[in-house]
Amino acid sequence: MSIGFGIIGLGNRGYKYALHTIMKSKECHIEMVCDAHGNHFDQFPGISNTKEFTEVLENPKVDAVFIATPDDTHAEIVIQAAKHKKHILCEKPLEISREKVQEIQVALRDFEGAFEVGYVLRYARLFQKVKSYLISGAIGDLHMINVMDHIPYGGYAYFHDWHRKRETSTSLLLQKATHSLDIVNWYVDAKPREIAAFGRLSTMGKPGALKKFGKEVASDLHCRTCVISDSCEESIQNILKEKKISWSENWPDSCVFNSEIDVDDHQTVMVQYENGTQLAYQLCLFGAYYKREFHIFGSGGELRFDDVSNEITIYDRLRNETVTYKNDYAEEQMEPGDEEQLQDFILAVQTGKKPISNLESSITAALLAIDAQASIDQKKMIKSD
């Protein structure tokens, strides 16, 4: 039987995942779409639409919901969806505060439906291949992991819209870093215990304005009307011209140097897991180029990989030997692993199996990012419970 989906949230991620992944599946169809602002209803001709998510939940033809609303709205919608006995596929992160994450945890304690969170890298071929190497003991016992996220589109993605304020996002560790942090949690297969982190806002926001203009910028300044948009390294026009990045013709364009911005634009996070494995992670949201790179140290060797070359290299500690794996599969979806993630969700709906990205793992990922930001703010090590 085909699974009837209700899509809640038709922003950049929501409508594209619905169109390019859910609608292409032979085992799913879309019954209804919802967006509080009426965005992208025209992309779903012949499909019922509404601005009220409760109408989706009350629709008896909707078996499952895909939630892609702003992160600080997830708890309310997830809890209501569970009450209506809908299967739930929710975008990451789970929520933006410890209190709301725990609300979801309590509300779903006896939930019998499928629940999956959009940590798509767990489903991407490259990351799954690394997991299989680690399980096989290719580098022995894990002891240390170094991860670096270079993000050249940080300003474009996170500093023009609601992500730029802690009130609605808490930290960009939750918005961007959480993918890599979740992958490390999956590889280490243990809970984070001690977290020490550092972060600053230095290039965007008021600090960036003072360096660039010598003063704060007007609160109503926008790229499309700014007199220096042709030369500004963060204008949406230049990002398109120089880096070929454009996710929507109507992308928000509030100035990334606005003084209301209060999230960090670079962070360093150090973690010790309950099994002793150590993580050193860094996120740079004003990078010159894109790359997500991992270096994993084990008792029997080292493993390095990144998602640009799509190569995994294993170095043997005893023998002068290396093994290289190259992934030549071209991902066609918005994110690597989108199709595989949906298939895992479908299987969970049909059989009751626990998804690879589940409630417990998404709680761990969210709380790690939240605790790391708390460490930055409080200038002390945080012990996770």
Automatic annotation (TrEMBL):
<feature type="domain" description="GFO/IDH/MocA-like oxidoreductase">
    <location>
        <begin position="127"/>
        <end position="303"/>
    </location>
</feature>
<feature type="domain" description="Gfo/Idh/MocA-like oxidoreductase N-terminal">
    <location>
        <begin position="4"/>
        <end position="118"/>
    </location>
</feature>
<dbReference type="Pfam" id="PF22725">
    <property type="entry name" value="GFO_IDH_MocA_C3"/>
</dbReference>
<dbReference type="InterPro" id="IPR055170">
    <property type="entry name" value="GFO_IDH_MocA-like_dom"/>
</dbReference>
<dbReference type="Pfam" id="PF01408">
    <property type="entry name" value="GFO_IDH_MocA"/>
</dbReference>
<dbReference type="InterPro" id="IPR000683">
    <property type="entry name" value="Gfo/Idh/MocA-like_OxRdtase_N"/>
</dbReference>
<protein>
    <submittedName>
        <fullName>Gfo/Idh/MocA family oxidoreductase</fullName>
    </submittedName>
</protein>
<dbReference type="InterPro" id="IPR051450">
    <property type="entry name" value="Gfo/Idh/MocA_Oxidoreductases"/>
</dbReference>
<dbReference type="InterPro" id="IPR036291">
    <property type="entry name" value="NAD(P)-bd_dom_sf"/>
</dbReference>
